[in-house]
Structure formats: structure tokens, C-alpha cells
């Protein structure tokens, strides 16, 4: 069996700004969704791919930010090499691959390399992609997903030849509509990808020498600089993903991702979740160190972190509650993310609307409480973003509370 390796692109502190204020305290890849850090979900799916020897996480977070996760992941997936390589600055989605090419290609030399973005929630059909990839002779296979026509232009759009699955055209965020099939942020490449990246880097250097507007640096974009020419050269194929897929860009999309992952875990690994009962409406994840009053009603689509205390008569639905937060008696949390160390007073209510299909500028859907926010008894907070360390004692709606 030929060797396969995987790269997970996690970005760095200047990325994930739309997840603020949650990412002020917790780096985006480590944000808990369905009881596990965001980056864990693709890694656990990759760990099931036969012949996969190594997962390399590339980002520009400090090593110390990722080290705890790497240690735990190595323990959980002992048969796979798992490491973190840190870019000295943001190098773009292909710059890090170029910079670390020797580490990626060191023996066992991989024949195939998965590349996976962190900011997506997906069923990660890696094995199906590998099967399609081994049937054609292209340099790469991209996972395409279908989105609504109104939102397609927010993504990298793909035009495919239906019979052959050959990608004939790729445009990143086009000005006008070209297709409803978009880049799902998962790729499988032959090792010859590195020849293509070298060509793209050389072309960029040549352009920079001629054109003062083109910067001469190590930044390279996988989508525009590598995939666009590969599509033009008819060297890439498209795997059409029919299973669930969402982008996780905003905090509101984390609530949707939480629901999608919990629903999937319910089918694949139900023991990880809390048992259904009259007061637990599945799917619900409750960390083993959380304390839950038996009269609280929880679910569906709830993830409760370590050390959380849930009091008498509390109601929680469609929500993520992060570590060490206290939900006092009869408080209620719906369509929200409650950050760590918050204190929600008795009879207080935190709620929002489900994530809309289209973002409306200035409109907040889901409520986000950052870390160490406290709500006085009976306070109502609806569709608000609340920054860290705030104490609220008046009702608020559709506001950013600084
Ligand atoms: P936006 O809509 O502008 O955010 O663009 P996008 O959806 O195309 O996402 P983007 O290209 O910013 O990121 C795609 C993936 O690559 C994400 O998983 C990022 O974390 C990751 N990423 C982006 N830039 C870098 C980078 O410079 N280095 C690394 N290692 N990862 C990156």
C-alpha cells in the first residue's frame, strides 16, 4: 500500500477574527465543538484512512499554543505521527507547504498528501476521495460541495465536466456566478504537487522582478496560485461530497457545526454522548467533570464543557457551554455560546436565533458571551455579542456589549 500523509492548515492568531470574542481566549483550532477541539474532527477522520502514516499541522500559532493538543492527539492516535510545524509568519495556504516541503516529503515518502482546512465542518469522506483519486491520473482531487446559488460567490467556484469529474475551471470568489459547486477545503494531491508549487513560486518571483506591485515574499495561495493553473491544465478532478458540510467562520456557525457533529456522533459513536432520558434530549455531550442537576432539561444539540455547573430547572438547547461556567437555577440558554468562567444568574435568559443562511450586515443571530461574563438574576440577553469580563444587569438585544 502506498504511503499517505496529511496536512491540516490551522492559520494563526491574525486569522479567525470573525470568531471573536471567543478566539480572544481560545485559539480557533482549539475551540471545543461537540466536546472536542475543532482541529480534532478532521484528525480523527484522517486517523481512519488506511495507510496514513503522518498528520502534520501547519500554522503560525506559537508552538506552546498547540503543544498540549499535539500531546493528547499522539496519545489518542498512537499509530500515526502527529506534529506541528510553525510558519515564521503567515505564508498563505501554499506558502507553508513550500517552506516545509522537505519535512513533508521525508521518508516514508508519501505518494498521496491530503490537505485539509480547519475552518470547515464536514463528514470528511477521506477514503472516498482516496478511492476516486486512485482511479484517475490527475495531480489532485478537490472535494466539491453544493451550496445555494445566492451564496456560491463567497467561495472558490468549481466547474466540472460531469462524465469524467475533471475540473475544467476554478475561480476564487468570482464576481459573477459560475457554479453552485464550491471548494470544500479538502484536497488530495499526488506528491508532484510540490513541482507545481515550485513552478507557482518561481512564476511569482519572476512577476515580482518585473512588476513593482507584486510583492517579493514567500506567500503563496493554494487556491489562486496553484489550483487555478492546475484546473486550466486539466490536471485536477472533483469529488462531489453529498454528506454534510459547512464553513466555520463566525461564532454563529460554530453552533451549527456543533449540531452537525453531534448528530453524526450520535450515529457513529453514541457512547461518547450523554444517554437520552426524560431530561436529556439527544444529541447532547456532557463532559464527565460537569455537574448537572437532575431537574435541568438539556438538548438537543448541546455541548457542555469541563467543570460546568448546571443548576435546578435550567434549560439549555442548541448551545455550547465552555468550561467552568455556572448556570444558576432556572436560567435558560438557547442558540448561544457561553464562554468559560461565566456566571449566569438565577432566572436569567441567554438566547438568539439560529444562524441565518445569508449573513445580514449588522444583524447578530446567535448570542455569544466571551469569557468571565456574569449576568445578574433575571437578566435577558438576546442576539448579543458580549466581550470578556462584563457584568450585565439590564436586558439587552441585538447589541455588541463592550
Ligand atoms: P476568507 O473567506 O477570506 O476567510 O477566505 P477562505 O475561506 O478562503 O479561507 P482562508 O484562505 O483564509 O483559509 C483557508 C484555510 O487555510 C483555513 O483553514 C485557514 O486556517 C488556513 N490558512 C489561511 N492562511 C494561512 C496561512 O498563512 N498559513 C497557514 N498555515 N494556514 C492558513
Strand content: 25-35%
C-alpha end-to-end distance: 56 Å
Helix/strand/pairing category: alpha/beta
- Molecular shape: globular
Q: How many domains would you count in the coordinates?
A: 2
Number of helices: 8
Are any ligands bound, and if so which? guanosine-5'-triphosphate
Gyration radius over CA:
22 Å
CATH architecture of the largest domain: Alpha-Beta Complex
Residues in helices, as a percent range: 10-25%
CATH class bucket of the largest domain: Alpha Beta
Total strands: the figure is 30
Going by CATH, the homologous superfamily of the largest domain would be Spore Coat Polysaccharide Biosynthesis Protein SpsA, Chain A
Structural description of this entry:
The protein has 402 residues and is of the alpha/beta class. It has two domains: 4-247, Spore Coat Polysaccharide Biosynthesis Protein SpsA, Chain A; 284-401, Hexapeptide repeat proteins (UDP N-Acetylglucosamine Acyltransferase, domain 1), CATH 2.160.10. The protein has helices spanning 40-46, 63-76, 92-99, 101-105, 126-135, 193-210, 222-232, 251-268; strands at 4-11, 32-33, 36-37, 52-59, 81-86, 112-117, 120-122, 140-146, 156-161, 166-172, 181-190, 236-241, 245-247, 284-286, 291-292, 297-298, 302-304, 309-310, 315-321, 326-327, 332-338, 343-344, 349-351, 367-369, 374-375, 380-382, 385-386, 391-392, 396-397, 400-401. The strands form six sheets. Strands 14, 16, 17, 19, 21, 23, 24, 26, 27, 29 and 30 form an eleven-stranded parallel sheet that branches. The protein has a seven-stranded mixed sheet with strand order 5-4-1-6-11-8-12, sandwiched between helices. It is globular and about 65 Å long. The mean pLDDT is 94. The chain binds guanosine-5'-triphosphate. Guanosine-5'-triphosphate (GTP) binds at residues 9-11, 15, 58-60, 87, 90-93, 96, 117-119.
Amino acid at each position: 500500500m502506498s504511503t499517505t500523509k496529511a496536512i491540516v492548515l490551522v492559520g494563526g492568531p491574525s486569522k479567525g477574527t470573525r470568531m471573536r470574542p471567543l478566539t480572544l481566549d481560545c485559539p480557533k483550532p482549539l475551540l471545543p465543538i461537540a466536546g472536542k477541539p475543532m482541529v480534532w474532527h478532521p484528525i480523527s477522520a484522517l486517523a481512519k484512512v488506511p495507510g496514513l502514516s503522518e498528520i502534520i499541522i501547519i500554522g503560525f500559532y506559537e508552538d506552546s499554543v498547540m503543544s498540549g493538543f499535539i500531546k493528547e492527539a499522539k496519545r489518542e492516535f498512537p499509530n500515526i505521527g502527529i506534529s506541528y510545524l510553525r510558519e515564521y509568519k503567515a505564508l498563505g495556504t501554499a506558502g507553508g507547504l513550500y517552506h516545509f516541503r522537505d519535512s513533508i516529503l521525508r521518508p516514508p515518502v508519501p505518494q498521496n498528501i491530503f490537505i485539509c482546512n480547519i475552518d470547515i465542518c464536514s463528514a470528511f469522506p477521506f477514503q472516498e476521495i482516496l478511492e476516486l483519486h486512485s482511479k484517475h491520473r490527475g495531480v489532485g482531487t478537490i472535494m466539491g460541495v453544493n451550496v445555494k446559488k445566492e451564496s456560491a460567490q463567497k467561495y472558490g467556484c468549481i466547474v466540472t465536466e460531469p462524465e469524467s469529474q475533471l475540473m475544467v475551471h476554478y475561480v476564487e470568489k468570482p464576481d459573477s456566478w459560475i457554479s453552485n459547486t464550491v471548494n470544500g477545503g479538502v484536497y488530495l494531491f499526488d506528491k508532484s504537487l510540490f513541482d507545481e508549487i515550485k513552478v507557482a513560486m518561481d512564476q511569482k518571483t519572476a512577476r515580482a522582478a518585473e512588476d513593482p506591485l507584486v510583492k517579493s515574499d514567500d506567500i503563496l495561495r493554494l487556491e489562486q496560485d496553484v489550483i487555478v493553473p492546475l484546473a486550466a491544465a486539466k490536471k485536477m478532478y472533483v469529488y462531489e461530497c453529498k454528506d454534510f458540510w459547512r464553513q466555520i467562520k463566525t461564532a454563529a456557525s460554530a453552533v451549527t457545526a456543533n449540531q452537525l457533529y453531534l448528530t453524526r456522533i450520535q450515529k457513529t459513536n453514541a457512547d461518547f454522548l450523554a444517554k437520552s432520558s426524560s431530561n436529556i434530549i439527544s444529541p447532547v455531550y456532557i463532559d464527565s467533570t460537569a455537574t448537572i442537576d437532575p431537574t435541568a432539561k438539556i438538548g438537543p444539540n448541546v455541548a457542555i464543557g469541563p467543570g460546568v455547573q448546571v443548576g435546578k430547572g435550567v434549560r439549555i438547547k442548541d448551545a455550547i457551554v465552555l468550561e467552568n461556567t455556572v448556570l444558576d437555577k432556572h436560567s435558560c440558554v438557547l442558540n448561544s455560546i457561553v464562554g468559560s468562567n461565566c456566571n449566569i444568574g438565577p432566572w436569567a435568559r441567554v438566547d438568539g436565533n439560529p444562524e441565518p443562511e445569508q449573513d445580514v450586515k449588522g444583524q447578530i443571530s446567535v448570542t455569544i458571551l466571551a469569557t468571565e461574563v456574569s449576568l445578574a438574576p433575571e437578566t435577558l440577553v438576546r442576539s448579543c455579542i458580549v466581550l470578556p469580563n462584563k457584568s450585565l444587569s439590564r436586558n439587552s438585544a441585538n447589541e455588541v456589549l463592550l
